[in-house]
Amino acid sequence: MSLNYAFAFSLFLLLLVGLNLYFFYALNTTGKKPSPYVVPNIKLDLGPSLFKDIYTHFNYLPKQYKTKNPKFIVKQKDLISLFNSSAGTNSKDVLFETEKWVSDESLFPHTNGAPGQILRAIQNSQIALVDNAPKGTQLKLLLLLEGKQKLYFKPKRYELDNVIKGKIYAGYDRHNSEVFAYYLAMALNFKWIAPSVIRKIHIERDVVPKATLALNKTMVKNESGSTCIYGKCFYCKRNETVCPDQNGEIEGAAILYLDRQFKIHKSPWRRSYTTKKMEWEEDNNFCKKVTATLSLKRILNLIDVAIFDFLIQNGDRHRYEVYKDQIVLLDNGKGLGNPSVDELDILAPLYQCCMLSLKTWQNLELLSGGSLSETIELLAGYQGNKLATEEHFRAVDRRLMKIYATVQYCIGKYGNTKVLKKI
Q1: In whole angstroms, what is the distance from residue 196 CA to residue 135 CA?
Q2: pTM higher than 0.85
Q3: Are the CB atoms for 61 and 39 separated by under 8 Å?
Q4: Active site residue: 173, 309, 316, 331, which one?
Q5: CA-based angle 118:119:124, to the nearest 5?
């Protein structure tokens, strides 16, 4: 009898504990709708404790951030008209005018179909000379066009579905990331970026007969007899070449060369590229030190760049270039490495400073519900480009949700007025 009594009493206690847990859960989730997004468990040793707060906001974002914003329809149509313009303008004239263009709002014209015309000129203009690019850590070529304009050419290293594992800055630059970044910037209304588009160049027709002596010295034949290039750069090696495909072509990102003087600065949120932790990685009050040395405008600009980099997962922004007091989005090739990874610490400038340009926030809110990836895919389609896998497009929309959650975390902590800045 005593054993039966003990067993029954144990069951009663288990039932009582279960009921208590159920009522506690019910009381704390009343009125909260479950998120359709799967949120991974966050270990305390993988980041600051505020990550948990950000992911809590991610779980319970308002419905408006999960559905398309009807106000974006007009803006999307305007963007489409810029890239789907007729090709009647002479390529040389377009690029010549582009080299002369600069304003306080952007590096290049963004009206009357100019972006689409610029990209077609970059894709189709005849090549007069090919050389090694003078600077950089990875292979890229400098193309001189017949109209004397210049392009950087970053060759393809990976297939689109290749997943880069390891550190956030691991692997070669991704040519598709450079082009994806350009369309992303257009959707975000970030106009301080060089136009970039996918282009194919024929090794025997476009490169070999037009190569400089210096470039010729970095060409070798592979086992099948094709001419390959290893180039001249900090990490270039003779055994790490770029070779043409079965059609004799090399695909790459063609990026309009900016013949302007930039001021170069080290990023306060740069990485060490070693096991050593940087100060910002250990001190969540790091922004106080930054605000003592940089203007509000520059900090808000750095936060915009962090948002941009987080969306493509570019963790390699160790320095930044400035022109007309605006950060120019150069070297975006380290994005689109792994669609399953969202390194939240790329957003450190946002969650440590907890402020954001009101204009940027309003633009971000317009892109909810999948509009961001949809717009990038639409714009790229007009130049015949497939830039990423579906996993990467979905990842960009997921990361945008995490940016919403981070801003909501900041607003919940400090209020709208202190977080959203009008400048």
Answers
A1: 19
A2: yes
A3: no
A4: 316
A5: 100
